[in-house]
Design goal:
The chain is built from 22 helices and ten strands. The chain is α/β, with parallel strands linked by helices. The longest helix has 45 residues.
């Protein structure tokens, strides 16, 4: 039974095709936001000029009052105007910052639509793992990677969530829920713009996971009596200091209160440091969390995941945004302790210690909720990234998930990282009702064999992450993926390319025994050994994978390996990518055709760059079969 019904698929495709033109909408909004920036900038400058004139007028009135020409009371007028002018400039500044953030958002969107995005976003280099069975092979991370194209998350938690979706397939039930959430967010461009603009300057040191761990840790400061005692000590200190320095009272009581504060502070110092340590310096990050939570709390959602986000943020009666804002206020007050002037008074006010008790009281009530707040915000950030991609690629459908059998079927399959105008689409049918379970892909150098394997692999990754695929239509069953497209030797470990490849092939073979059927993508299999061993070893490996229920593709331009398909017929089929050498120039159409490639371009390619090579071996227009006889 299909996890995605035909009715659901039809509904999703209809909604995709009825979305507004993304380039036109982005262009219109970008022009509008730039106009807003210009208008706000002019308004702020005008208010600044007025404030400058007001300040000058205050100086003039002050000089005239000092000289006795006018009454000093006239100073009230410029001073009364100065305060609202300053507040107005601040309001203009906040609005201007928001408008500029919107400009950046739509400029980035236009760059993606115009294929100028590579190198402008988060490449996700930290997620690269040479031991992962397909991440490097399919360009999931790095410059110009799939992650860079997709990711719009700005918290580390949101980026981790999206990376996790690409690195491991979701269950069919999860995919259905995720797809519904993406479809709902896809049409909410205003919401996605707002989420992208909130908390634009997030501290690089913001560690939300550390904050979540802090929220769940045991309580260290308890009881009302210490808080009351702290207030009494501060009150006594302030009164005694006023008495001593203002009225020449005896200093004995003041020294006693100072000693009491010192002992009180020393007793709690270590616990205070533990309590406030993760909060200090996080006012900006907490402000961002409060803003994004508040924005989501104002939305009403229908999909299960997003409705759960709203429920999580409003649980326990008080909205998450309000709770986080209270903690942010405490972080702001802690930051005041670092002011060089206030720091002189802070010890007498037991400033840090008293705020630590407030923070601990907050944590006792709300601390355990921090992890769930961060989790749902990370989920929304990842979903919004996918929704933006879905909005910007309206012709790309969601793949149908087939929970029966083992198959990958696609019509018009293309690589999502190639410009649409340059991407050549091909059809694919592996497993399922057809008998073919292996495609042996032959072709000359640069003909598109490896790109085709990456095209298949990356679209399966997208399908199993809940992201639209680059195809007219695609149907895929739950699969593991194993690939050998980017196997390299290692000088440090003393491993040759051949040894590195057979280790990776062993990893792929082991994956075939897992809970999900395997899709294998083996590029130039056993390239580092002689033709005889290569032929024998490759067929044995492919037979072993097929025995474990796997499906996949292998590429080669060693025609001996093309015979594998004959030995495994009818479950294996030969296909090829061809080229033409005309007027000293190679031409490729990147179209997959049935059968084995019949011509080689290696010598012609070497000659085209000026290398003097002989005429032995297969040449353009000369049959491979003739060379093999």
């Amino acid at each position: 039974m299909n996890a995605t019904t035909d009715a659901e698929t039809a509904s999703g495709n209809i909604e995709t095709t009825t979305l507004a033109d993304p380039a036109g909408e982005y262009s219109r909004r970008l022009a509008d936001r730039r106009a807003v920036v210009d208008r706000l900038d002019r308004g702020q400058k005008r208010l600044g000029d007025v404030r400058l004139v007001t300040f000058g007028l205050a100086l003039l009135i002050g000089w005239l009052a000092y000289s006795g020409s006018i009454h000093p009371g006239w100073l009230v007028l410029p001073l009364a105007a100065f305060v609202p002018l300053t507040l107005g400039i601040a309001r203009y500044g906040r609005s201007l910052l928001g408008a500029r953030r919107a400009v950046v958002y739509y400029e980035a969107g236009m760059a993606r639509l115009e294929d100028r995005w590579a190198g402008t976003g988060d490449a996700g280099e930290r997620y690269r793992d040479p031991l992962h069975p397909y991440a490097d092979d399919l360009d999931l991370f790095g410059l110009g990677s799939l992650f860079e194209r997709l990711c719009g998350a700005r918290t580390r938690s949101g980026q981790d969530r999206l990376a996790g979706w690409l690195l491991a397939p979701a269950t069919p039930a999860t995919l259905e829920d995720r797809r519904s959430a993406v479809v709902e967010l896809r049409s909410r461009l205003d919401l996605r713009e707002d989420l992208a603009g909130l908390g634009f300057e997030i501290p690089a040191s913001l560690d939300l996971q550390a904050l979540a761990a802090w929220g769940k840790s045991p309580r260290l400061l308890r009881g009302q009596i210490p808080r009351v005692l702290a207030l009494l000590l501060v009150a006594g200190t302030v009164v005694s200091m006023i008495a001593v320095f203002g009225f020449d009272a005896k200093p004995g009581p003041m020294y006693a209160f100072w000693l009491g504060e010192a002992l009180f502070s020393a007793w709690y110092r270590r616990r205070v440091r533990t309590v406030v340590g993760p909060v200090e310096g996080m006012a900006g990050g907490l402000g961002f969390l409060s803003e994004i939570a508040g924005r989501l709390e104002r939305e009403t959602f229908d999909s299960r995941i997003l409705a759960g986000v709203g429920a999580t943020l409003t649980a326990d009666g008080e909205p998450a945004s309000r709770s986080i804002e209270k903690l942010r206020g405490m972080a702001d007050r802690l930051a005041a302790n670092h002011n060089v002037y206030f720091a002189l008074l802070a010890p007498f006010l037991l400033w840090k210690t008293r705020i630590a008790f407030e923070v601990e009281a907050w944590r006792a009530v709300r601390g355990a909720r921090i992890e769930s707040w961060i989790d749902v915000i990370a989920e929304v950030e990842a979903l919004a990234s996918v929704a933006s991609y879905a909005y910007e690629c309206p012709a790309d459908p969601f793949a149908e998930i087939d929970t029966e059998g083992t198959s990958v079927e696609a019509i018009g399959l293309g690589h999502p990282l190639l410009p649409v105008s340059k991407s050549v689409r091909n059809d694919l049918s592996l497993g399922g009702p057809v008998s073919t379970r292996v495609l042996v892909v032959s072709g000359s150098n640069m003909s598109g064999k490896s790109t085709w394997l990456r095209t298949v692999g990356v679209n399966v990754v997208l399908a199993q992450a809940g992201v639209p695929v680059r195809a007219v239509r695609m149907r895929v069953s739950p699969l593991s993926i194993g690939a050998t497209l980017r196997v390299q030797d290692s000088l440090q470990s003393g491993a040759s390319r051949f040894y590195a490849e057979i280790k990776r092939i062993k990893q792929v073979v082991d994956l075939a025994s897992g809970s999900r059927p395997l899709l294998f993508l083996l590029d130039e299999i056993l390239h580092g050994t002689n033709s005889h061993d290569r032929r024998q070893g490759a067929e044995a490996i492919v037979r072993g994978l097929l025995d474990r229920g796997a499906i996949g593709l292998i590429t080669t331009h060693d025609l001996a390996l093309a015979d594998i398909a004959e030995g495994l017929s009818p479950v294996a089929t030969n296909v090829h990518f061809a080229d033409a050498f005309d007027g000293g120039t190679l031409h490729f159409d990147y179209t997959m055709r049935p059968g084995v490639v019949r011509e080689s371009n290696a010598l012609a390619l070497m000659r085209s760059v000026g290398l003097a090579v002989g005429d032995t071996g297969p040449t353009p227009g000369k049959s491979w079969d003739a060379d093999r006889k």
